[in-house]
């Protein structure tokens, strides 16, 4: 029985929300109950600034998902997780994908948010958590734990993508930071202003990164990093 992309995307959304909620609750318990620190904010102005940064993180996340397709990206992530879990049961390292036919000549996505960062979803989530740190200071601990998780996840994810694309992923995405809140914000503002496509035409990655039409973005099964 084939599970639809919508169902997989829904399950993936619930898993992400559950992970972030547990991370925030555990961080608050350690920060307040174990360490005895003030939950914050220490000053109302910090909460205002923090709320603004959280808003930027949410906007960056929406920009990334809307630019392509939330269902496509979330369902692809769910497929990767299932592949990783199945591979671990068979003794395969999580960074090595299932590739019966070897690597393939995928078209690497390098436009939109991927012009500026390799992992826009991680960048947006971390931006929101760092902003929340100014509102409730126990989010500092959550941000540190989230950063560690993202470092490990991005390393495994990039190794898998590189293996799937015969090494072209590393070649095309070289020079782009893994996580950069300001870089992602710059891409978002340029696309809103309508100059994003023009800048991507001058990308050193050439024709491999020429923008897809909007309808193709929503249906092309191409590997992209979170």
TrEMBL record:
Residues spanning the membrane:
12-32, 44-68, 138-156
Q: List keywords of the entry alphabetically.
A: Membrane, Transmembrane, Transmembrane helix
Domain of life of the organism encoding this protein: Archaea
Q: How does it sit in the membrane?
A: Multi-pass membrane protein
Subcellular location per UniProt equals: Endomembrane system
Q: Where is the signal peptide?
A: none
GO terms for CC?
endomembrane system
Q: What is this protein called?
A: Uncharacterized protein
């Amino acid at each position: 029985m084939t599970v639809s992309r919508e169902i997989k995307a829904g399950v993936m959304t619930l898993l992400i929300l559950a992970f972030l909620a547990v991370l925030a609750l555990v961080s608050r318990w350690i920060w307040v109950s174990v360490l005895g620190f003030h939950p914050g904010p220490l000053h109302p102005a910090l909460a205002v600034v923090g709320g603004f940064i959280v808003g930027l993180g949410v906007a960056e996340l929406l920009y990334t998902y809307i630019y392509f397709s939330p269902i496509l990206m979330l369902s692809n992530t769910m497929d990767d997780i299932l592949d990783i879990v199945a591979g671990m049961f068979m003794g395969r390292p999580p960074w090595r994908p299932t590739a019966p036919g070897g690597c393939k000549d995928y078209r690497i996505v390098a436009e939109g948010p991927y012009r500026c960062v390799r992992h826009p979803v991680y960048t947006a989530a971390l931006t929101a958590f760092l902003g929340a740190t100014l509102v409730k200071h126990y989010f500092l601990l959550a941000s540190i734990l989230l950063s560690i998780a993202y470092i490990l996840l991005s390393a495994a994810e990039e190794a898998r993508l590189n293996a799937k694309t015969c090494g072209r992923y590393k070649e095309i995405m070289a020079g782009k930071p893994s996580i950069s809140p300001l870089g992602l914000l710059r891409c978002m503002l340029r696309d809103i202003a309508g100059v994003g496509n023009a800048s991507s035409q001058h990308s050193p990655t050439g024709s491999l990164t020429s923008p897809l039409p909007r309808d193709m973005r929503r249906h092309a099964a191409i590997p992209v990093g979170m």
